[in-house]
Amino acid sequence: AIDIGRDLGRVLANARTFEREHRLVEELQELADYKTRLVATVSHELRTPLTSVVGFAELLRAAPELSDRSRTAVDAIQRGAVRLTRVVEDLLVLHRATDADIGEVLPLDLAPIVADAVELSAGPAAQRGITLTADLPEGGATVLGVAHELEHLPTNLIGNAVKYTPDHGTVTVSLEVLAGEVVLTCTDSGIGISAADQERVFEEFFRSADPEAAARYGTGLGLAIVRRVVERHGGRIELESDLGRGSTFRVSLPAG
Ligand code: ADP
């Protein structure tokens, strides 16, 4: 039976709940926008003075009259400023990759981008006796995308693979075109990631508490950048890892 009073009461209560939830969503959105603007502004403002600090510290180090004590201090200043620069750069990259609009996408061959990233990690890998090999397709691997975003995929994945692999280990990179997809795989014989951490490594600022991982320097932003860029390019990322044995990250992007 219809009870107008009761039903009207229910409708009104629902409407009020809906209004409250709607307001809450709006407030959360405003807060998220504020956070984004704050991070972007702070990072941007820090960049210029940091460039001066790094530059002048370098200049000071070259001064012949510097005492050992001063030299140690200048080295510490420079190392600190370089680290800070890395955090700021990563924050800016993450911020840019968060903009709703990806901008103009172009057909791009990922092979030379991956080759550059391998080259970048070749020095650090060789220094620690890590065998770094890459298998790249001759015919290229074209995707539709933005070059300055896509370059973070191989750079961050290969950089991590080398960083989280003990001396004399191996890192293998491959790029393939498979069934309409371009697949970038990065496998390492490193420290691996526990099942619990695997769920969280793509979060902003997440760093594993595992002592082996925590002993290495990082911002916790590298994989967050990778995930954002992959999502913006309509791709997906998979992770397989065994603690103490190594990890495989696989990025699949629609072929362009
Ligand atoms: P970080 O700057 O700390 O390396 P990332 O976002 O790149 O930040 O990675 C997040 C965390 O995931 C790292 O702190 C580390 O614990 C783990 N991780 C990432 N890549 C690897 C890897 N190849 N092997 C083992 N652990 C990894």
From TrEMBL:
Histidine kinase domain sequence ranges: 41-256
Keyword annotations: Kinase, Phosphoprotein, Transferase, Two-component regulatory system
Keyword Chloroplast applies: no
Keyword Transmembrane included in the entry's annotation: no
Single Gene Ontology MF annotation: kinase activity
Localization per record: Cell membrane
Superkingdom of source: Bacteria
Protein name per Swiss-Prot or TrEMBL: histidine kinase
